Amino acid sequence: MNGRCRPVDPDSDAMRGYSTKDKANKDHCMSVDALRSLHYYPTCFARDMCYYLVDGRLWACGHFEPMSSSHQDCLKSTCLFSSAHPLGCRSTNCMRTMQLPVRNPIRVFKIKCTDCLSRGGLRRGGGN
Predict the structure, then answer these.
(1) Whether the Cβ atoms of residue 65 and residue 113 lie closer than 8 Å to each other
(2) What is d(CA 124, CA 122) in angstroms, rounded to the nearest whole number?
(3) What is the C-alpha separation between 56 and 108, in angstroms, rounded?
(4) What's the domain of life for this entry (predicted)?
(5) Which residue among 18, 24, 56, 115 sits deepest, i.e. has the most Cβ atoms within 10 Å of its Cβ?
(6) The pLDDT of residue 69
(7) Which pLDDT tens digit goes with each residue over 66-91?
(8) What 8-state DSSP symbol labels residue 118?
(9) Distance between CA 112 and CA 118 in Å, rounded?
């Protein structure tokens, strides 16, 4: 895939429920290196499988403190975790894994977390 993700198709299942304006803003392609540099994965990234959306606090040190999570359904009949998957299906072709959870910072703090503060004190450059 030459280091890039595929663009999001505005008419795909991943974009179901988004407004036309949101779809226009989400048709870009982000490099894999740019994704790795983030502390969380953006919710506009194409999702091919079910995943958990984790709401939480993002601290200046880069630590993420989860507060709640919700299951995001891919709505594919071939995904074991989807509500669209038929009951009693024993096919070996069904996807049996979920994608990594998506971190959704609902609170962003400009200070380090309590663990980093206790390890490094208030001095500059204290531990991560």
Answers:
(1) yes
(2) 6
(3) 9
(4) Eukaryota
(5) 56
(6) 95
(7) 999 999 999 999 999 999 999 999 89
(8) H
(9) 10
> Is the pLDDT reported for residue 36 higher than 50?
no
* Position with higher pLDDT, 19 vs 84: 84
Beta strands 102-108 and 64-72, pairing class: unpaired
Residue that has been written with the tokens 């959870």 in this structure: 101
CA distance 11 to 20: 10
Q: Are 117 and 59 in contact (CB under 8 A)?
A: no
121 φψ region: left (φ > 0), alpha (ψ -120 to 50), beta (else): left
Q: Supply 65's token pair.
A: 């403190």
Residue with tokens 């669209």: 84
Look at the chain and count its residues. Answer: 128
